[in-house]
Amino acid sequence: MKRLRSSAPGWIVLVVLVLLWETATRLAGSLYFPPPTQIAETARQMWFSGPAASLFLTDVVFEDVLASVARMLGGWAIAGVLGVSLGVLLGRSATAMDYCGPIISFLRAIPPPTLVPVFLALFTLGTPMQLATIVFGTIWPILLNSVDGARSVDATKTETARAFRLSKVDWIFGVVLPAASPKIFAGLRISLSLSLVLMVISELVGSTEGIGYRLLYSQRQYDFPAMWAGIILLGVLGFLFNTGLSAVERRVLAWQPAHRQAVAAGTGA
Amino acid sequence: MSTMLEVSDLGHRYHAKGGEHTAIDHLSFTVAAGELVCIVGPSGCGKSTLLRSLSGLITPSTGRVALHGDEVRGVPDDLAVVFQDYSRSLFPWLTVQRNVEFPLKRKASRAERRSRAEQALDWVGLSGAGAKYPWQLSGGMQQRVAIARALAYRPALLLMDEPFASVDAQTRFELEDLLLRVRREHDTTILLVTHDIDESVYLGDRVLVLSKSPATVVADLKVDLPAERDQITTRESDAFVALRAETARLLHGGGTARPRVQADPEGAAARFLAAERAEREAQSSHRQPT
């Protein structure tokens, strides 16, 4: 309740802006800038006019939206698993980063969209190419943050673990990963936003389905309300994913100093 | 009494840029089962190196360490360490109960881990705090958790590295008495490193005085105080005062340089408090006989 109330001013600003947008677009009457109500109506027809059996969702939702979301989350998850495991390995090795550091710096400096043609040549058109683009683009923040986090285990904890002869598994999963988890979450959060961007970009090039493809298709058909609906959908998706990840993070990192006040306020009130 | 720890001719050299640095040299001593031995030495004399060699965390350059007859190579299975920095040595993402259980994963079943942890927390007077996180406890309580974790491990030897150096004077007294009670009740063999002379005499059955770096054993003093100790009466007894004076003289004369006064504000505070309380006691006992 408190959280909702504290974000109320933000929602008011949003509503006011939408109203202003509605008025401005109606007054201007531009083909390129349809009013929000028209966009909303288009969105309803496009996505929410399906049969009751499928919760009123249309086929477009299943073919484009869910396909896109699955690719985005899939790519992000693959990048997460690879990034965290590689990062922890590199971070706990004294010399590995000396060897791999420059290569990583170079690879992550390459703008991921420029690799789309490469992945197009390497993989078949569609999902494999798109997954490759998303994984390549989102792995770096996760990897580097995991390296940083794995290195942040202090000497006393290392000695405590050694003195109690913790097994390798307990050491990695019971000490290194929890100690690194605040940094890992920071990396995951950056990568989640990146994965949304890369999902769209990979679909703009040589794709036959997905939100990005639909966006480009609408624009070429001069169907501007549909194009705007796609843009807003992407914004909403980004917001929802980020909120979801924040909720998970709050739970997982509840032990952290930064979360202490929130916990204390929650139990004390 | 059987010998629990045997250290013979232990030495360790670090290879630094400007040549070698000898941290400890020709150290020999033993600790009998059930004993509480305090090691006191000037700051920077190599106490940490000694402790790390004993626990197998580092391999000493020369000499031999044996725990109940077995030579120490790597960390022994039945040894526990309590570090000075409790805030770093406890795992902040685990509750108190889980912190105590965690090192037992290799040793005991889930049910046994649980009961051992509850028992050890009870020994240190924290039976109600199992569900809390370390940051919800005071510094002294956190160090008690670290002690409980070590006790639940049921070590043959408990090593303590300046365990009470980071808490305030009042808490230090409480923790010292807690340690004495726990080792009496559970017959634990303890080797405790400290830089506080008073603490070493108050806690120990024996006090090993180390010299300045490279550390060697200057003296092995038997503490002839009754087993039951009290922060006020023990500290004001003639035997205690004599022992702490002797230890201090050995400590300051043990090096090659001339004796220097050590800045030890916490020790000073502790002594001041003890003296003040002793005075108060004396006054009240004066008034009583009427």
UniProtKB/TrEMBL annotation, chain A:
Subcellular location: Cell membrane
Transmembrane segments: 73-94, 115-143, 226-245
Residues covered by the ABC transmembrane type-1 domain: 65-245
Keyword presence, Repressor: no
Record's bilayer topology term: Multi-pass membrane protein
InterPro entries reported in the protein's UniProt record: MetI-like, MetI-like_sf
Protein family membership: Belongs to the binding-protein-dependent transport system permease family.
The protein's name in its UniProt record: ABC transporter permease
Taxonomic source organism: Allokutzneria multivorans
